[in-house]
Amino acid sequence: MHKRVEGEATVKEVGGAPTHKDCPMEAHSKLKRDDNDDGFLADDRLSTLPDCLLHEIMSYLKLQELVQTSMLSKRWMPLWRSMTSLNVDQEEFKVAANALMAVKCNTARELVEWVKFEKFTDHLLIRHNVDAALLISFRLHISNSSRGEQAARWIRHLIKYGSAMVPGTPWNLKKLHISNVNLDGRLSEHMRSRCPSLVDLELKGCKCEMYEIASDSLKKLVLEDCDFRGLAAITTPKLESFAFNGGRITGKCSLVIMAPAVDDVAMSVSNSAAGVHLHGVSNVTRLDLSCIVVVALTEEFAQFNNLRDLSLKDYCRLTDSFEKLLEQFIWSSPNLENLNVCRCKEANRHTSFSATYVDEDLFCRVYGHRRYPQQEEAHDN
Asked: Residue limits of the F-box domain (predicted)?
């Protein structure tokens, strides 16, 4: 027979796992068990781990595996409800091919899979089986973008109740990744007012009708293959990295990016006819622009004192004359080292060239004069 844990024995005595003091969470596993508690014996080392470590282990499981695992014992049953990281992925609910032999129509097959996924997710989120207020990381991936409108209610519900579970206490959500969901301006409003700890936002394949993306805490923003209608401003004072890959922006307003702390900007957006203003990213060190309209710099435009890598490519269109705008870029970037201009156009004329270490001699060869008059005089001498 196994020897049961008696009295005040510590976790380390039975399994060498961290003690309660090693875990920062409030809820810890209790080592003293009753005889009817599913026979938790001293050699059940996994169940004697603190809740925070069990949550870490469970965070690597798929959603259905997570729920199934929680049914193994009473010790595990409440743990999945208090998960801090949740990954809801429709791909997990694809029905095996042999189970759909009778369903020959693709539309019917997708419907079967969606109904199964929707029922499970409703039970998980809408019925509060997961405590949204405890979530630090949340990912929602929808395989079929045609279901994006239906899936949007999960995001709205999550944000609404995640920040309202404990009145007066801000939501601790730090990471939010969403794929193929229809979003509107309420997302931006909720991010600023109800998600003060959000640092990582990723939207993929989403259809978004919003005027602004705003957050006082966001540090990483990734927009991939998203369709934006009316997006006119990105206001993120603490943003460090911004990538807008694929997708498009439609609307009459040009996009103004206000991210004074951003270090890396990469944009490749089609159909953004109104253009993009860059005067709010003056501290950037790498700027990679493709397939977009760069609006001419204004007189108030600050210098790119930290810019070292500049890339304009793939039919990037420059307002005003190409030479004038490129000269402004180089003139305002005293530390520029790498310049790549490829397949850019002004009117019907294409221009391509690249250079490493953009010094005064290169600038002179391109424009016929030097950036700084005193260096031009020294060069003449």
From this structure: 43-96
